[in-house]
């Protein structure tokens, strides 16, 4: 701009400079305000998203028709976790600069540490799924032995096979601490497919057979405890204080939210699937002021109530399909215990009903266990990947 344009101006150069600086400062403040507003909107949207997903799981959003703790519900729970984990990963990426500064760096490091502990839970749950598959083998023997008409009339040999399979199944379904069989130890991780793993061979006697079928390729040590692991995941998990929320621009709330989701999902998996030293005493002290707290606390209470039911107290898992196996296998065992052939008509009808119900459960297991196992594997890998990306990003920004 030509110098003559300034001639005759009554504004001194120094004042003009101050005016330009003031305008620039106002623009910066406006941009900061816009940034703060966008961040606040992003973090609030994450809270609402978590609340909506768990509200749906609790049955309050019109999409919670799947029965609590069924295979379908459990798969939906893992889908919910994966969605929350992905959105949380994006938040960390978008605010990776803040994530490397105190106090947020400590909070995120603790979250990643909880994730490492959750990996053991995933491995133990995978082992539990494999254990349920072993139960299925015995159920299939029972179904073949007690095949309904138009198969030939039930004979003594078929009845003995059914009784033996039901006895072996009852032994297999005992909690490990109550079972007399020993477990073999062969490491298997999520890196190798369970289909390719060596399977234990059946034995001749019922007692030995139970021991062999319980000899799975366990991924956790004999001294490992699901109850203690859940307790470790929940250690020092507390809602952020007001000064921590302010200091982190609200990011501390997102970290606490995802940590709580992680703990609840791992707890629900342990509740549903057979695991070593299962224990449901984990305490959830989530303030109800968080929008996602009511549905999670409601689900926690309902699952605890389910575990206290008289017919579920000694169950190896609260999965709905496990309960059905226990119920109908026990009923068939009672029916066939002192059964005389040929069967009276009323006895035959009761046996057929039990066989039909077990057949339905077996079909549900065949359809649902493999997808559930794939989801558990995906949760495992997603936790590992998110932790690796997060630590790399924090390390890069700290340099």
From TrEMBL:
Keyword Zinc: no
GO cellular component, one term: membrane
Intracellular or extracellular location(s): Membrane
Topology relative to the membrane: Single-pass membrane protein
UniProt keyword list: Membrane, Transmembrane, Transmembrane helix
Region described as Disordered: spans on this chain: 185-211
Xref: InterPro entries: ROH1-like (IPR008511)
Pfam family, one: ROH1-like
Record-stated family: Belongs to the ROH1 family.
Full protein name: Uncharacterized protein LOC109723221
Source organism per UniProt: Ananas comosus (Pineapple)
Gene that this polypeptide is encoded by: LOC109723221
């Amino acid at each position: 701009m030509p110098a003559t344009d300034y001639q005759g101006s009554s504004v001194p150069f120094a004042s003009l400079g101050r005016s330009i600086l003031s305008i620039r400062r106002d623009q910066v403040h406006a941009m900061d305000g816009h940034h703060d507003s966008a961040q606040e909107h992003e973090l609030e949207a994450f809270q609402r998203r978590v609340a909506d997903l768990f509200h749906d799981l609790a049955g309050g959003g019109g999409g919670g028709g799947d029965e609590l703790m069924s295979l379908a519900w459990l798969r939906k729970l893992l889908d919910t976790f994966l969605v929350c984990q992905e959105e949380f990963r994006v938040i960390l990426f978008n605010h990776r600069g803040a994530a490397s500064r105190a106090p947020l760096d400590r909070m995120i490091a603790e979250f990643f540490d909880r994730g490492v502990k959750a990996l053991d839970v995933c491995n133990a749950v995978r082992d539990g799924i494999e254990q349920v598959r072993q139960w299925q083998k015995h159920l299939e023997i029972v179904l073949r032995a007690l095949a309904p008409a138009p198969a030939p009339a039930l004979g003594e040999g078929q009845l003995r096979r059914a009784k033996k399979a039901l006895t072996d199944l009852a032994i297999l379904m005992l909690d490990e601490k109550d079972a007399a069989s020993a477990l073999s130890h062969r490491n298997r991780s999520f890196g190798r497919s369970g289909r390719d793993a060596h399977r234990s061979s059946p034995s001749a006697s019922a007692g030995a057979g139970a021991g062999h079928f319980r000899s799975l390729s366990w991924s956790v040590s004999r001294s490992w405890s699901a109850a203690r692991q859940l307790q470790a995941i929940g250690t020092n998990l507390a809602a952020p204080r007001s000064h921590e929320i302010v200091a982190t621009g609200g990011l501390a709330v997102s970290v606490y939210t995802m940590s709580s989701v992680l703990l609840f999902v791992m707890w629900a998996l342990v509740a549903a699937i057979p695991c070593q030293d299962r224990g449901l005493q984990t305490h959830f002290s989530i303030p109800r002021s968080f929008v996602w707290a009511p549905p999670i606390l409601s689900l926690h209470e309902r699952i605890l109530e389910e575990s206290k039911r008289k017919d579920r107290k000694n169950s190896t898992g609260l999965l709905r399909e496990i309960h059905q196996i226990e119920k109908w296998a026990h009923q068939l065992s009672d029916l066939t215990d002192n059964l005389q052939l040929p069967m009276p008509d009323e006895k035959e009808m009761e046996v057929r009903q039990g066989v039909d119900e077990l057949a339905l459960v077996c079909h549900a297991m065949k359809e649902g266990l493999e997808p559930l196992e794939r989801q558990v594997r995906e949760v495992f890998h997603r936790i590992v990947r998110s932790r690796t990306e997060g630590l790399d990003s924090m390390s890069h920004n700290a340099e």
